[in-house]
Amino acid sequence: MFTIPEWTFEFHGHRCPFMPIGYRMGALMLNTLEVPRAQDHDYFMFAELGVGHPQTCMMDGLQASTGCTYGKLMIERQNFGKLAATLWAPAKGGVRIAVKPEFTDALGGYEFFTFRKKGVEPSQIPEPVRLEVIQKVLSAPDDEMFTVKLIPDLKHKKISGSFNKGKCEVCGEYVFERYLRKKDGKHVCIPCSGHEPSVYGQK
């Protein structure tokens, strides 16, 4: 039985089978490349997942097990809509791991998904129903769940960070240097530049 730290469920917010699948996938990546969980900016992950359930639940598991987090610029969602991801580590190359279709098909037969297809949120599904499918995920051997492909020649150029910043001359807020724009001779942030949408989708 594979064991997942309790904090991962607390971080994710509910108990479902796909966060643990992502966690196991990430753990297998580290084991395959023989590297420890990332502390700093050691690796990079290409997640082939898309937007929406259950794919986004897997993203939390991948980040939790590998330490490749969005905050550290160590993961990119490629929006392929596939249950697969590739981990790159310097001097090790990469490894791509995908969930086997046969395992996905078998998982779909559990009562948990009957509730989910009716729109019932995971936290509202009866606990025994949730535990049943989670136990399946935690008890299955790796070779039943995943395909593993080594990519020894995989290369990646890590994004470098910068502490340089400047004040927007319109709103007065600090902006990290690479996001400053020029408008009417002033250094401005993207929302004040009027050239690109803000994070809220407004000009």
Which labels suit this protein?
203 residues; 9 strands; disordered C terminus; alpha+beta; 60s Ribosomal Protein L30, Chain: A; Wheat Germ Agglutinin (Isolectin 2), domain 1; 19% strand
Description:
This protein is α+β, with helices and mostly antiparallel strands. The protein contains eight helices and nine strands. It has helices at about 5-10, 20-35, 55-65, 100-105, 110-115, 125-140, 140-145, 190-195; strands at about 45, 75, 85-90, 95-100, 145-150, 165, 175, 180-185, 185-190. Helix 3 links the parallel strand 1 (about 45) and strand 2 (about 75). Helix 2 (about 20-35) runs parallel beside helix 3 (about 55-65). It is globular and about 60 Å long. Mean pLDDT is about 90; it is low at about 200-203.
Short description:
By secondary structure, this protein is of the alpha+beta class. It has helices spanning 6-12, 18-33, 55-66, 101-107, 111-117, 127-139, 142-145, 190-193; strands spanning 44-47, 75-77, 84-89, 93-99, 146-151, 165-167, 174-176, 181-183, 186-188.
Proper CATH architecture of the largest domain? 2-Layer Sandwich
Spans with pLDDT under 50 lasting ≥5 residues?
198-203
In the residues, how many domains can be counted? 2
Total count of strands: 9
The CATH class of the largest domain is Alpha Beta
Overall average pLDDT? 90
Largest sheet: 5 strands, mixed
Q: Give the CATH topology of the largest domain.
A: 60s Ribosomal Protein L30, Chain: A
Give the SSE layout.
Elements: H1 6-12, H2 18-33, E1 44-47, H3 55-66, E2 75-77, E3 84-89, E4 93-99, H4 101-107, H5 111-117, H6 127-139, H7 142-145, E5 146-151, E6 165-167, E7 174-176, E8 181-183, E9 186-188, H8 190-193
Parallel strand pairs: 1-2
Antiparallel strand pairs: 1-3, 3-4, 4-5, 6-7, 8-9
Helix pairs in contact: 2-3
